[in-house]
Amino acid sequence: MTTSPHEPTPRPTVVAVPGLDPVTAGGRRRLPFTVLAKPTGAACNLDCTYCFFLSKELLYDGDGQRMSEAGLDAYLANLLRSQPDGDVEIAWQGGEPTMRGIPFFRRAVELAEQLRRPKQTVRHTLQTNGTLLDDAWGEFLATNGFLIGLSMDGPAHLHDAYRVNKAGRATHAQVLRGLDVLKRHGVEFNILCTVHAVNQDHGLEVYRYFRDELGARHLQFIPIVERVTREQLPIAEQGWKDGNGTRILYRQEGDAVTSRSVDPAAWGEFLVAVFDEWAANDIGEVFVQHFDVMLGNALGQYSMCVHAPECGSALAVEHTGDVYSCDHFVEPGYLLGNVGERSLQTMLQSPAQREFGAAKRTSLPRQCVECPVRWACHGGCPKDRFDVSRDGEPGLNHLCAGYYRAFSHAEPTIRRMAELVAPTLG
Questions:
Q1: What is the pLDDT of residues 333-357, one digit of tens each?
Q2: Could you give the dihedral angle defined by the CA atoms of residues 50, 51, 52 and 56, in that order, rounded to the nearest 10 degrees?
Q3: What CA–CA distance (Å, rounded) separates 254 from 231?
Q4: Among 223, 286, 294, 328, which residue has the least CB neighbours within 10 Å?
Q5: Nearest 10 degrees: CA dihedral of 156, 159, 165, 170?
Q6: How do the residues of the chain divide into helix, strand and coil, expressed in percent and rounded to 5?
Q7: Catalytic residue among 160, 292, 322, 327, which?
Q8: Nearest 5 degrees, angle CA 344-CA 354-CA 8?
Q9: Contact 384, 6 (CB under 8 A)
Q10: Least-confidence region, from 40-54, 185-199, 273-287
Q11: Of 370, 362, 357, which Cα lies nearest the Cα of 400?
Q12: Is residue 85 among the annotated active site residues?
């Protein structure tokens, strides 16, 4: 499985400064947006126990889970036509996208260069579990300037708890070999680390492992919340498979979570441990997405949908060209259309998608509205809002306690940083 951080792998910057003003097309303003495209659908060479996306193959069962060349052409033409001038990020995810092979991505690079407008600059990002990377991949990725998001959950004894292959065997050593390929070829990379029941109490160990042993300088920490109905909880605990090994389709339903899910309080302490180490030693040297985002929020610059006031500008495109409201809502009810039939801008600006994005703000319970760290959190991701507030209102984020602890702890330092940075933004 490739982890899903809600946003494409970010470029290594401290603060995401807004880019060029969107241009207009047909009298309609082009809204900036991001897309996670899945050239292999939900197909993956691993079988990570907590992977919500493996079950999405059931939506397209038996179709091979492969984006065709015609589909690639339709997607890239639509994407580049729909994006404003300036930098355009083409983000590839899965499943495991490297299963589609180098020739597919070579063609993607060629097509993007042919289809982009003169004032557009294209960069490709790819999120991978790293286990299939070899020198051929390293050379290709380096030559074409790919930014890689590499999924790893810490040192071997933590990573291998859930990130296993189809035979249930450990994968940490394979990921290290993939990382070595990236380093040897000078490929820029970020670490994408999910935080779950096994590594949640080891924040400092995980952070130092990435920083000191792997030499990573750009980190994302992604909380695992496997939401499930109480009726389906026994199957979910088996890795979303029944006794016969048949998968069930993961949906954003229910008010229970699996035992693999991160504990809300532990999530907060994980972030606090990382923040204290980072603030004491690594500001300006190591870039941690949550802290970059917090600083951006303090400056009114929202670079991550999870902690922006509204969402809806991070779409997901399946291998068939079907477009969904969000990577976490690839399920019936959130299908917006197909890239071969409707423009991404049309889907982005559709009433259904606008309502989806605005609901993040309008559905906040009073506890969130009045929260002193709302400016940093904004209620978190809607997929995790299934708890009840102190006043009995529905819609409280399951991770509320953790976010409150972490953001309250970090606020004084982040506010001071914002005061220093603000004058430089003009």
A1: 999 999 999 999 999 999 999 999 9
A2: -150
A3: 9
A4: 286
A5: 20
A6: 40, 15, 45
A7: 327
A8: 55
A9: no
A10: 40-54
A11: 370
A12: no
By CB neighbour count within 10 A (0-12 exposed, 13-18 middle, 19+ buried), where does 159 fall? buried
Q: Is the distance from CB of 309 to CB of 361 less than 8 angstroms?
A: yes
* Cβ atoms of residues 91 and 149 within 8 Å: no
Residue reference for tokens 């050379």: 139
Tell me the C-alpha distance between 192 and 128, whole Å. Answer: 9
**For 213-363, where are the E strands, in sequence order?**
218-223, 227-228, 256-257, 287-288, 314-317, 322-324, 335-338
Separation between Cα atoms, residue 151 and residue 326, nearest integer Å = 20
Q: Token pair for residue 196?
A: 């779950």
User: Mean of the pLDDT values across residues 204-209?
Assistant: 98
pTM: 0.93
Please list, in sequence order, all residues whose beta carbon lies within 8 angstroms of the beta carbon of residue 132, skipping any fewer than 6 positions away: 45, 96, 98, 99, 178
Q: Give the C-alpha distances (Å, rounded to integers) separating 198 from 117, 156, 160, 288.
A: 47, 12, 10, 21
Beta strands in 284-392 (DSSP E): 287-288, 314-317, 322-324, 335-338, 385-388
Residue type, 140: F
Judged against a pLDDT cut of 60, whether residue 158 lies above it is answered with yes
Residue found by looking up tokens 């180490």 in the block: 277
Per the CB < 8 A criterion, the answer to whether 145 and 182 are in contact is no
End-to-end CA distance of the chain: 42
Beta carbons of 345 and 66 less than 8 angstroms apart: no
Residue reference for tokens 């179709």? 63
Residues 6+ apart with CB under 8 A from 369: none
Q: How far apart are CA 398 and CA 405, in angstroms?
A: 13
Task: Determine if the peptide bond prior to 357 is cis (ω within 30°).
Answer: no
Tell me how far apart the alpha carbons of residues 288 and 265 are, in angstroms, rounded to a whole number: 20
3-state SS assignment for residue 155:
coil
SS3 153: coil
- Does residue 95 have a cis bond before it (omega within 30 degrees)? yes
What CA–CA distance (Å, rounded) separates 216 from 158?
A: 17
Are 378 and 259 within 8 A, CB to CB?
no
The amino acid sitting at 89 is E
- Tokens describing residue 194: 């999910």
Q: Within a 13 Å sphere around the CA of 296, how many CA atoms are in the beta-carbon half?
A: 23
Residues 6+ apart with CB under 8 A from 38: 67, 92, 93, 94, 95, 97, 316, 317, 318, 319
Is beta strand 218-223 parallel, antiparallel or unpaired with respect to 256-257?
A: unpaired
